[in-house]
C-alpha cells in the first residue's frame, strides 16, 4: 500500500481515537456533576433524618432517599458497559493505527510525524481514562478541579490533533522549520 493511501486511513484512525478520548472526557465530567448533585441531595435527606422529625416525615424521607439511591445506582451501572465498549474500540483503533504506521517507508518524515502524533494520542487517551476514573468515582468533586482536568484533557486532544494534522506545528515543535530569511541554494555571484 502506498503512503498516499495509508495517510487518509491513519487520519481517520487518529481522529476516531481522539473522538473516543473526547467522549470519555465529556462522560466523566457530566457524570461527576450529576453525582455531586445527587450526593448533595442525599446529604440533605440524611441530615433531615438525623434531626428530630416525626415518624411520617421520616418515612417520606426514607422513600425519597431510596428513590435517589435507585437513580444513582442506575446511573453508575451504565459506565461499566460504556467503559468496556469504548476501551475495546480504542484498543482496536490503536492496533489499526500501529499497523498503518508500519506501512510507511522506514525513516520517512511521514512515519516519524505519524508515530509521534499516534503515541501522544495514546498518552492522551490513557490520561483521559485516568481522569475518567478520578471523576467518575468522585475522587475529584470540586468544580474548579473538574474544569482544570477537563481543560487539560482537551488540551492534550488538541495538541495530538495539531501534531498530526498540521505540518507547520510539527515542524515548529521539532525545530525542522527553515528560516525564511536564509538564502537557499548557492550564494549570489557577488559573494564569490
Strand-pairing-aware structural class: mainly alpha
User: What would you call the shape?
Assistant: elongated
* Unreliable residue runs: none
Q: Supply the number of helical segments.
A: 5
Q: What is the number of E strands? A: 0
| N-to-C order of helices and strands | HHHHH
Which bin fits the share of residues in helices?
A: over 70%
Q: Main β-sheet, in a few words?
A: none
End-to-end separation: 48 Å
If you compute it from the alpha carbons, what radius of gyration comes out, rounded to the nearest whole angstrom? Answer: 25 Å
Taken as a percent bin, the fraction of beta residues is: under 5%
Average pLDDT reading: 81
Note down, in words, how this protein is organized.
It is a single chain. The chain is mainly α and 192 residues long. It is 81% helix and 0% strand. Helix 4 crosses helix 5. It is elongated, with a radius of gyration of 25 Å. The mean pLDDT is 81.
